[in-house]
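Let us work through a complete example step by step.
Step 1: write down the sequence.
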Amino acid sequence: MKKANFLITGLFIFLFSVGLFAQTPTGTDYYEGSWNVKVESPMGLMEMVVDIALDGDEVITTINDANGDLLYPVTGTVIEGDQATIKFIGSQGDNVALDLKSKDENTVSGSVMGMYGASGSRVK
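Step 2: predict the structure and record it as tokens.
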């Protein structure tokens, strides 16, 4: 009986410790890759592919259409924790900010300029 209690206790401790370390990555580890992002705007639904890559310590971001053509030139990207802010030149020539926040392992939500809802999913 003592062996059974010992084994059950050991198994419980093992599973608990594994659960502590099984966390969704944050920062550039989370955002690195391609994301299909949809933005609800007054002009209708806008779809874009946001690619985020690392080159050393530099974050390189591109915003393309579904065909892979450049949609908007990106001027900067800041990733802190589970949030990313991507600044780009919009179609009217204005500086625009796309804010994204991780929801789970493969989805994000956010807004453009704090006014228009955005949602995205990781390209697999």
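Step 3: interpret the result. The chain is about 20% helix and 55% strand.
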